[in-house]
Structure formats: structure tokens, C-alpha cells
């Protein structure tokens, strides 16, 4: 299959994003460890990491990665960009091995290999993206019954985990934090794709920011990212890098 120019651009941006994001997990982990030695740990509800320069360096690196990831969605299909995020596991695992002295077990190594194989397979067989000319088209797709039901279920699960499960056992079960991030991430992908397309169309001369739907997706992206950031920090403090990256 011959990849389109837009797919190549999206692929390059997505891989760059994985490198930045994978590195940021390690940098933030170091910052969280230092902050935990001088204050209340993030896993225990503390925010002392906000005063740690290394954590902010990791955050800046992550932002650069997310910007590249955001741009990738403007050029390539979400089905191509999203799975490539798994490559950040490779970068995180390698850096964690040398910097944090976290050793991967055999299953971890196999998992990394599967990530690479899966990503290559997706890149080779990525579909051609459907042409969208207006935010109204995206809104029409996003308001289909199936997606609305999924969104409601995802939000309900997140709220249940945050207000019921986390309070009781979140600090002991990091899978709760990971579940929250994953559920919010599924909504983030769709919203980021919508905003990226809106920007691409706007730069092309068709202003999409006159539509309320565009701002709705921007709000969703902001909320989802803040929630994910908060719980990713908690995961970082109570687990190895390779588990949550």
C-alpha cells in the first residue's frame, strides 16, 4: 500500500510524539520521587511535585509530545495515530532501564515486541481518511446513538471510579487510576481529532471556530487532559514507568 503524503506527515509526527511522551514519563518519575522525599506523595493526594523543576521539565517534554500528537491527528486517521502512541512504551522502558534501574520481565519484553509489530502492521494497512469539510459533519458522526451511549457509559464509569472506588482503594489499586485514564483517553482521542480537523480547515480558509460544536470539543479535550494528568501522576508515583506508559 502506498502511503499518502498526509499519512506520512501524521506518521512522522506520531512517532516524534511517542519519543517525547515516553521520555517525559521518566523525567516526571524522577521529579515525583524527589518531590515525595520533601512532601506529601502524589499517590497520597499531595501536590508537592508542582514545586519540583524536574517534574516541570517532564511536563514540558510531554506537552511537546502532545502538540506533535495533536498535529498528527490533523493529517492522519485516528486509527493510524492512536496505536502509534504505544511506541512510547519502548522509549519509556529503555530509559527507565538505564535511568531508573527498572528491569523489564520477559512478559514486558514480549509486550514491547508486540507493540512494535502491531504498530508496523497498522502503518502498512492504514486506511485512507474520509474527507471532512465542516465541523458539522464531525458533530453529526459524534451524535450517532452508538457513540452517545458509549460516551455516557464511559463518563459514568469514570465518575464511579473517582468518587467511590478511588476514595476506598485507589492508593492500593493503581489499575483504578489506569482505568480512569484509559476511559478518559478514549474520549480525548475523538475530541482531539475534531479540534485538529477544525484547525486544519480554519487554516485552509474555512473558519470552524464560528461553530459552537468546535468549542464544545475544545472544552472536552481540556477536561479530559486535566483528569488524565492528575491520575497519571498518581500512577507514576506508585508504579514502574513501563506499567503506565
UniProtKB/TrEMBL annotation:
An example Gene Ontology molecular-function term: magnesium ion transmembrane transporter activity
Intracellular or extracellular location(s): Cell membrane; Early endosome; Membrane
Pfam families (alphabetical): Mg_trans_NIPA
Subunit (UniProt): Homodimer.
PANTHER family for the chain: MAGNESIUM TRANSPORTER NIPA1-RELATED (PTHR12570:SF20), PTHR12570
Task performed by this protein: Acts as a Mg(2+) transporter. Can also transport other divalent cations such as Fe(2+), Sr(2+), Ba(2+), Mn(2+) and Co(2+) but to a much less extent than Mg(2+).
Name of the molecule in the record: Probable magnesium transporter
Source taxonomy: Eukaryota, Viridiplantae, Streptophyta, Embryophyta, Tracheophyta
